[in-house]
C-alpha cells in the first residue's frame, strides 16, 4: 500500500531540476542507489506512478529526491514542478538493482546521475571514495547536476563533457569507445552506468568489447 507523505521543501538544483524533501515514514529504509514509485496525491494523479531514486542517506530524518522536470508534456514531472511545501505524494516500497560493488567508474547521461548521488554521498560520508570516478555527460554546463558537490568530494575524480554548449571550456565529446579508451586505462574495474536506455545499451556493448567483464557492469535492469 502506498503511504501519503508531505513535501517539506522544494529547492532548485539547476534550471530544471529540484530537490524534493519529503516526510520519512517511521522504519522506512532503502539502500543507496535504490528507487521507489512515486505519484502525486491528488485526484487524477494517484495512479500515475513514476520511478525516482532516493538521493538522501538512510540516516537523514527526511527523504530526498532529485528530479528533473520535463515540461514538454503534461506529465508527472511537470506536475511535480508546480507543487509546493505541504502538498503530498504517495510513496511505495524501495527497489532497484544499482548497488555499490566496489571502486570503479560511474558513467551518467544527464539525469541518469541521480542513482549515483546517494551512493557517492554514502561513500563520502564514510571516507571511502578513493579510487572512484564520475564521468557525466550533459547538454550544457547549466544542466550539470550537483557539480560543486561532486567536485568537493574528497577522493572522487570527476570528468564532465557537454554535447550542446559550444561556449563551454569543458570537454565537448560523446561518451563513445574512443572517449573511454582515452580516459580509462583499466577495463577490469567496476563500471556503473545510468542514463537513456540507448546510451546504457551502447555503453554496455562498448565496455564489453574493451575488456570489461559482464558481472563488473552494473546498470538498472
Automatic annotation (TrEMBL):
Q: Which domain of life is it from?
A: Bacteria
Q: Name one Pfam family in it.
A: NAD_binding_1
Sequence ranges assigned to domain FAD-binding FR-type in this UniProt record: 1-101
User: Under what name is this protein listed?
Assistant: FAD-binding FR-type domain-containing protein
Q: Which SUPFAM superfamilies match?
A: Ferredoxin reductase-like, C-terminal NADP-linked domain, Riboflavin synthase domain-like
Signal peptide residue numbers: none
Q: Which InterPro entries match?
A: FAD-bd_FR_type, FNR_nucleotide-bd, MRET, OxRdtase_FAD/NAD-bd, Riboflavin_synthase-like_b-brl
One annotated GO molecular function is:
oxidoreductase activity
Source species = Devosia pacifica
Amino acid at each position: 500500500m502506498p503511504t501519503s507523505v508531505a513535501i517539506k521543501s522544494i529547492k532548485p538544483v539547476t534550471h530544471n531540476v529540484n530537490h524534493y524533501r519529503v516526510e520519512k515514514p517511521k522504519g522506512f529504509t532503502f539502500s543507496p542507489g535504490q528507487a521507489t514509485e512515486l505519484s502525486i496525491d491528488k485526484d487524477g494523479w494517484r495512479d500515475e506512478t513514476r520511478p525516482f531514486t532516493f538521493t538522501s542517506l538512510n540516516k537523514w530524518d527526511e527523504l530526498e529526491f532529485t528530479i528533473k522536470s520535463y515540461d514538454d508534456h503534461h506529465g508527472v514531472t511537470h506536475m511535480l514542478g508546480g507543487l509546493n511545501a505541504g502538498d503530498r505524494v504517495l510513496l511505495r516500497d524501495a527497489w532497484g538493482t544499482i548497488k555499490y560493488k566496489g571502486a570503479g567508474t560511474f558513467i551518467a547521461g544527464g539525469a541518469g546521475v541521480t542513482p549515483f548521488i546517494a551512493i557517492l554521498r554514502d561513500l563520502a560520508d564514510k571516507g571511502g571514495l578513493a579510487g572512484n570516478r564520475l564521468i557525466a555527460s550533459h547538454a550544457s554546463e547549466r544542466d550539470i547536476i550537483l557539480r560543486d558537490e561532486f567536485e568537493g568530494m574528497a577522493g572522487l575524480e570527476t570528468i564532465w563533457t557537454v554535447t550542446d554548449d559550444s561556449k563551454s571550456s569543458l570537454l565537448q565529446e560523446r561518451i563513445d569507445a574512443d572517449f573511454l579508451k582515452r580516459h580509462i586505462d583499466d577495463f577490469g574495474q567496476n563500471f556503473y552506468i545510468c542514463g537513456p536506455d540507448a546510451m546504457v545499451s551502447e555503453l554496455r556493448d562498448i565496455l564489453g568489447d574493451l575488456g570489461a567483464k559482464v558481472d563488473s557492469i552494473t546498470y538498472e535492469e
